[in-house]
Specification:
Elements lengths: L4 H42 L2 E3 L14 E5 L9 E6 L2 E9 L4 E4 L5 E3 L2 E2 L19 E2 L4 E5 L17 E2 L3 E10 L5 E2 L2
Antiparallel strand pairs: 1-2, 2-11, 3-4, 3-11, 4-9, 5-6, 5-8, 6-7, 9-10, 11-12
Amino acid sequence: MYPSIDALEKELAREKYRSNYSRVLRSTVFSLLVVAAVAVLIAVLLMPVIQVSGMSMADTLNDGDIIVALRGVKYGTGDVIAFYYNNNILIKRVIARPGDWVNIDSDGNVTVNDVPLDEPYVTDKAFGDCNIPLPYQVPEGRFFLMGDHRATSIDSRNSAVGCISDDMVVGRLFVRVWPLKQMGVIE
């Protein structure tokens, strides 16, 4: 005996549903993979995401903050950048450019080319861990960096870190995305 027309129509509808379901599932999985791959490429090549570890940039940035940096953008004096140092990523502020003269007095006041820096981002000035001869001229092709929490920051004032070159820079910090209550552009 042959199946009835109703039974054949029900079976045909079920097969169409299964075929459509399969097609939609494959399409969704493929779309998710493409979006994930694009997100990873953007994060690695253009906008790395960095989690702050330590307090050398307090009060500007705190331990655990999650930051988005921009690669390939120009940065200058006052900008906060991330850079590679001994297989770690450090975060500091650009204080002086190549050829500039940096001086720091015993109270932690910084001058660049004999002009005192206006540093509203520093709450407690300190001489810090400085073992370089002052005044110090920034070598060509290098940048002088300091953390905002001057008493604890190990930065260009110490020959262990020294001045950094462009090829060490990960990017200029752009925006804090975590914690949400402090989300915003980094200055």
